[in-house]
Amino acid sequence: MRRSEVLGELLRQSAHSQWRDCFRRRRPTDLAFTELLEPDCLLAVLNSYGRRHGANAPIAAVAGEWSKRYFARVMRPIATAAMLLDWRVTLTPADLSIEISGEGEVVSLGLTDFGHPVRAKSAEDRFDFLIRGNIEAVIRAVSEVSGLSRNVLWSNAGNLFEGIARGYAVDNDCPGAGVVDALALLELPQMADGSRNPLFRPILYPESDGQPERLRRVCCIRYLIDGLDYCKTCPCPGRHCSSGKN
């Protein structure tokens, strides 16, 4: 199979069909990904996205919600390919372009190549191209323009990553090496260079009524936006109050 067909084959599966049109070849007329990360451009994108939530929506909370959309659009299929296909795609900002809608949504990502198979040396090595190659830069830029804590943004990324890995582990009695690596990465307090692992245990499973309850370690603050309630994995003590906010 040609390299350019691997992601396509993955995304043709019904479970991943919503991301089918997200990846394509980079075009000269595209917005460079590095331009998106410039403060003025990124703030304009966040403001466009935030219009759906009204003029008074806090920019930090809007940024958190936008980051979830970005991670779902880009991180989910790429992490899935790394877990299931041992696949690595070039995701450094300098090698990407991006298409953003007038509403601030990520439409598609322009790639310089469609990746290649890898023989990962470790759990960290398998996902480094995604975490340090792309997510880290996005989180740094979003945090700087919005004031939202990087811990919240990493929690948003970690919540999604953990859900993907845990889902594949539950669905398979004997998960493959990629899924095993993903779960192992979530248990590493530090990276090989001694730096903190920002994806270390983003989700906790305390018991509630004798059953484990899936909760984030860090609140995503979406409840600060009028019309949005606490998310179902919110760790805040007031999440079960009748009004949804306190």
3D architecture notes:
The radius of gyration is 18 Å and the shape is globular. The chain has helices at 3-12, 33-36, 39-50, 59-85, 123-146, 150-171, 177-185, and strands at 23-25, 31-32, 87-88, 97-100, 106-111, 116-117, 203-204, 207-208, 211-212, 215-216. Strand 8 and strand 9 (211-212) form a beta hairpin. With 246 residues, the protein is α+β, with helices and mostly antiparallel strands. The mean pLDDT is 90. The chain has a single domain (3-236), classed as Transferase(Phosphotransferase), domain 1 (Orthogonal Bundle), CATH 1.10.510. The chain has a four-stranded mixed β-sheet. Strands 3-6 form a two-stranded antiparallel ribbon. It has seven helices and ten strands. 44% of the residues lie in helices and 11% in strands.
What would you say about this model in short?
This protein has 7 helices and 10 strands. The protein has 246 residues and is an alpha+beta fold. Helix 4 (59-85) packs antiparallel against helix 5 and helix 4 (59-85) packs parallel to helix 6.
Tell me the number of strands.
10
Q: How far is it from the N-terminal to the C-terminal residue, by CA?
A: 55 Å
CATH class: Mainly Alpha
Strand content: 5-15%
Judging by the overall fold, what is the CATH architecture? Orthogonal Bundle
- Number of helical elements: 7
SSE series: HEEHHHEEEEHHHEEEE
Give the uncertain stretches in residue-range form. Answer: none
Radius of gyration: 18 Å
Strand order of the largest sheet: 1-5-4-2
Nearest-integer average pLDDT: 90
Task: Write down the overall geometry.
Answer: globular
Which structural class matches the secondary elements?
A: alpha+beta
The CATH topology assignment is: Transferase(Phosphotransferase), domain 1
Tell me the number of structural domains. Answer: 1
Major beta sheet, specifics?
Answer: 4 strands, mixed
Share in helix: 40-55%
